[in-house]
Amino acid sequence: DGVARTYAVAAAGGVLWIGRDGHQLEARPARAARGAEAAIAGSLEAPMPGTVLLVHVAEGDHVEEGEVLLVLESMKMELAITAPHAGTVANVALAPGDRVARGESLLAVVAGNA
Length: 114
Known about the structure:
Layout: E1 8-12, E2 15-20, E3 23-27, E4 43-45, E5 50-55, E6 62-63, E7 68-74, E8 77-82, E9 87-90, E10 99-100, E11 105-111
Antiparallel strand pairs: 1-2, 2-3, 4-11, 5-7, 5-10, 6-9, 7-8, 9-11
């Protein structure tokens, strides 16, 4: 449209700020998943941002469908994360007090016997 606009840009600590005319946009890269294999098959993701209250399982534990694996607190509500099927727990890298982002990998339940 032939209109030129000038923006101010700054970056520090992994955050990018873009501003113009008193307005600003702050951009942060997606938080990296915990552990080297966070995206393995059977991974369960956080349905909302929150804090880990309890972790009921450990790496290698066998669980049954519906068994509570961990509990998150978000917006003053507790949310139980349950096993979607029977299997072996893998990729546990969380502890009580850890903060998680929406969509962040929590742990995995790999189908099959222990």
